[in-house]
Design brief:
By secondary structure, the chain is α+β, with helices and mostly antiparallel strands. It has 2 domains: 18-106; 141-176, no CATH class. It has 5 helices and 6 strands, in the order E-H-E-H-E-E-E-E-H-H-H. It has helices at 35-45, 53-56, 123-126, 141-159, 166-176, and strands at residues 18-26, 47-51, 63-71, 79-85, 92-99, 101-102. The two termini are 43 Å apart. The relative contact order is 0.12. It binds zinc ion. Residues 140-167 have a biased composition (Basic and acidic residues). Residues 140-177 are annotated as: Disordered. InterPro entries: At4g02000-like.
Length: 177
């Protein structure tokens, strides 16, 4: 079962990109463990829903955890910038970079509006994979290399078209991959 945030434009066939999830702040400075401070930090990542019991009571203060509404459409965030100001003068007294960890970082497909895959691995899009270059696939290095070699071979093929060298080129491609 999945819980979704209700909104007026909610469409049942589309999954909301806003999903509740745990985020944690490893090695958080002790004085930020205070609930209000934590909520303030968590707010940068997503709308805080609640603070982990252990975190709130400082029973297990090794890691601070907050449950937030995370929007998959937002840029991924792995750190936040904490600025501490003097209460009276308003001057910045300290600033830290705080790492943010996500309990489970899933993906969101912009195409079919479902959580769990990206548009590059979307089955709905996959059915139309016949138009080359239209789909942006996140390639592994190996795939990229293979494609590069393929392109090179194709270019050579074009250049040497009519010279009947195709079988040799195919042989090279096989060796290199
Ligand atoms: Zn999809």
């Amino acid at each position: 079962m999945r819980v979704f945030k209700w909104s007026s434009d909610f469409e049942t066939e589309k999954e909301s990109p806003i999903v509740p999830m745990w985020i944690s702040f490893p090695n958080l400075k002790a004085h930020f463990y205070e609930k209000l401070a934590l909520l303030l930090i968590a707010k940068i990542v997503g709308k805080p829903l609640y603070v982990d019991e252990a975190t709130a009571t400082q029973f297990l203060p090794s890691v601070a955890r907050v449950y937030v509404e995370y929007d998959y459409k937002k840029e991924p965030m792995n750190q936040v910038w904490i600025v501490v100001k003097d209460r009276d003068s308003g001057a910045v007294t300290r600033s830290y970079i705080q790492r943010v960890e996500f309990a489970k970082m899933s993906t969101y497909c912009e195409h079919c509006c479902h959580v769990g895959h990206t548009s590059s691995t979307c089955l709905v899009l996959g059915n139309r994979l016949t138009t080359p270059g239209k789909v942006q696939v996140s390639k592994t290095l190996r795939e990229e290399k293979r494609e590069m070699l393929k392109k090179e071979a194709e270019q050579k093929q074009k250049q040497e078209k009519g010279k009947e060298k195709e079988p040799m080129l195919l042989g090279q491609l096989k060796q290199n991959t």
